Amino acid sequence: MGQLTTELAAAHRTFLQRLASRQSLTVPSPDPGYPHLGQAFPPWPRPGRDAILQPPKPEIPPSQHILDRAADRDTDWEAAD
Question: Cβ neighbours of residue 15 under 8 Å, at least 6 residues apart?
Fold first, then answer.
């Protein structure tokens, strides 16, 4: 297990070195008197922090049993008046 960890760490360091060398490449200007045109491989933009818009959840109609119980409860209040 220790050998595998060492090999993975070495591979990761090699990858980071190759990535750094590629990210430092620039696009040369066609005119030698002007500076370079920018990075050849710019980093990807970070994802935004805006809210994720989602459609509203569908309205679930109540069952007939619930409607009957609600109707019974309303009549009890009327009887108390």
Answer: none
Residue ranges of alpha helices (H) inside the chain are: 2-23, 64-80
Tens digit of each residue's pLDDT (9 = 90 or more) over 10-51: 999 999 999 888 888 888 888 888 888 888 888 888 877 878
Sign, CA torsion 61/62/68/70: negative
Can you read off the two tokens belonging to residue 69?
A: 């119980």
Answer whether 27's CB lies under 8 Å from 39's CB.
yes
In angstroms, rounded to a whole number, what is the distance separating the alpha carbons of residues 52 and 43? 24
pTM confidence score = 0.42
Please choose, from the candidates 10, 12, 38, 35, the residue with its C-alpha nearest in 3D space to the C-alpha of residue 24: 38
By the 8 A CB rule, do 41 and 22 touch? yes
